[in-house]
Design a protein that fits this description.
The structure holds 2 protein chains of 2 kinds.
Chain A lengths: L3 E6 L8 H10 L9 E9 L2 E9 L8 H9 L4 E3 L5 E3 L9 H5 L6 E3 L13 H4 L13 E3 L5 H9 L15 H5 L5 E5 L6 H9 L14 E4 L5
Chain B lengths: L1 H16 L12 H9 L16 H9 L4 H4 E2 L20 E3 L2 E3 L1 E2 L2 H7 L13
Antiparallel strand pairs in B: 1-4, 2-3
The chains are: A alpha+beta, B mainly alpha.
C-alpha cells in the first residue's frame, strides 16, 4: 500500500509564501478560490513573542468529512483513491457547498466565477487550451481544492514509478519542491524508510484538529510540540 | 413512543402536502426530526445548497429550530480568531445580502454530526 502524506515543519517555515505562489502557477487557482494559504499570527506576550506561519492546503483526510457530506447529499463527486488523494469531479459537483460547510479545515473553495488571468484583455493561450488535466479544467459554480498535484503523481502511477513519488521533481507536488528551507516533505508514510516517515517520527509531527476524527494526511511539526 | 411521533409527523405532513406548496416541517424533537429528514419523510426543501431558502438552512434553522447564534459566531465581529487554522478564515465575516455573516466554528458541528450522534455522521468516522 502507498499512503501519500506531507509534513510541514512550522519551526522551519518563515512565511515566504513560495509554496503558495508555486501552487498558483502550477494549478492556476484563482484569487477567490486559493488552494494553498499562509496563515500568520502572533503568539506569546512581550517580550517573549513569536510570529507563527502555518501554510494550509487540503489535508487529504483518511476519513474525509467533505466526501461523507457529498455522498450523503447524493452527488458522489468526491473520491479518495488508493494513494489517499481526495479529488473532486467537477462534472459531478453541483456546487451545493456541503463540503465547504463540513470541512474542519476550511479547505474546499467554491469558485463562483472563473476569473480571467489578465482581466480586460484577451484570454491567454493557456485559458483557451482545451486539453488540460481534469483537475485543471476551470468551471464556474463548482468547488475546487488542492489535489496533491495529482496530475504529476498520476504520471508516476501510469508509468509504474510510484516508488519515485516524492523523490524526483516530476513526481512531487510543486509546493514541496520550492520551499527554500526544506520545511515541506512529501512521500509514502507506509514506507518506514521514506524521508517523510523518518521526519514524522524524529520531529514528532502531528495532525491538527484531531478531535474531528478525519485523520488528515498532512502532518505538522508545531512549535513546542503537540 | 417514537414510532407514534413519526406517524404523527407523517400525518401532519400528509395533511400539509394537500396544500399547493409544501411547508418545511417544524419539529422540536431533534432525534425524531433527524430520522424523518434522513428517511425523506419530512419535507425540508429539495435543493441541496447553503442559502437560507434551501435545504441546509431549512434543516438547521426551520425544522430543528436552531437560532442563528447557535451556529454563527457574532459575538465579536464574526471573524475567526487570528490563530484559528482554517484555510477560508479570511472570508469572514462573510457578506451575503449586504449582511455580515459570522463564522461557524466547526467544533459546534461535532455534537450532532459525530459518529453515534443523531445527525448524519461526518466526523470521528470509524
Amino acid at each position: 500500500m502507498t499512503k501519500l502524506v506531507r509534513v510541514i515543519d512550522t519551526e522551519r517555515c518563515f512565511g515566504c509564501r513560495s509554496c503558495v505562489a508555486a501552487c498558483a502557477v502550477e494549478n492556476h487557482f484563482t484569487p477567490d478560490a486559493p488552494w494553498n494559504v499562509m496563515i500568520e499570527y502572533e503568539a506569546g506576550n512581550y517580550p517573549n513573542v513569536a510570529r507563527n506561519f502555518v501554510t494550509m492546503n487540503c489535508m487529504h483526510c483518511e476519513k474525509p468529512a467533505c466526501k461523507a457530506a457529498c455522498d450523503a447529499a447524493g452527488f458522489k463527486a468526491i473520491s479518495k483513491n488508493e494513494f489517499g488523494v481526495v479529488l473532486i469531479d467537477y462534472e459531478k459537483c453541483s456546487g451545493c457547498k456541503y463540503c465547504v460547510a463540513t470541512c474542519p479545515y476550511g479547505v474546499p473553495q467554491f469558485n463562483d466565477k472563473v476569473a480571467q488571468l489578465h482581466p480586460g484583455k484577451e484570454k491567454s493561450d493557456y485559458e483557451n487550451a482545451t486539453r488540460r488535466h481534469p483537475t485543471h479544467m476551470k468551471k464556474a459554480k463548482v468547488v475546487e481544492k488542492c489535489t496533491f498535484c495529482w496530475h504529476k503523481l498520476e504520471k508516476a502511477v501510469q508509468s509504474g514509478q510510484t516508488a519515485l513519488i516524492g523523490k524526483v521533481p516530476e513526481f512531487t507536488p510543486t509546493c514541496d519542491l520550492v520551499c527554500p528551507t526544506g520545511a515541506r516533505i512529501f512521500g509514502d508514510a507506509d514506507d518506514p524508510n521514506s524521508a517523510v516517515s523518518a521526519y514524522i517520527a524524529r520531529k514528532k509531527a502531528t495532525q491538527i484538529k484531531k478531535e474531528f476524527g478525519t485523520k488528515p494526511q498532512v502532518y505538522y511539526v508545531l512549535n513546542g510540540g503537540e | 413512543m417514537k414510532n407514534w411521533m413519526i406517524i404523527g409527523l407523517l400525518a401532519a405532513y400528509a395533511v400539509g402536502a394537500q396544500a399547493a406548496a409544501p411547508k418545511v416541517a417544524k419539529i422540536v424533537n431533534l432525534e425524531t426530526a433527524a430520522k424523518g429528514i434522513r428517511a425523506g419523510q419530512l419535507y425540508v426543501g429539495k435543493t441541496y445548497a447553503l442559502p437560507e431558502e434551501n435545504r441546509f438552512h431549512n434543516i438547521h434553522d426551520v425544522a430543528l429550530g436552531l437560532n442563528c447564534n447557535g451556529c454563527h459566531d457574532n459575538s465579536t465581529d464574526g471573524s475567526y480568531p487570528e490563530n484559528y487554522l482554517f484555510l477560508r478564515r479570511a472570508e469572514f465575516p462573510y457578506v451575503a445580502n449586504n449582511e455580515d455573516i459570522g463564522a461557524v466554528h466547526r467544533p459546534k458541528c461535532l455534537a450532532c454530526h459525530s459518529q453515534g450522534g443523531i445527525s448524519t455522521p461526518f466526523y470521528n468516522l470509524k
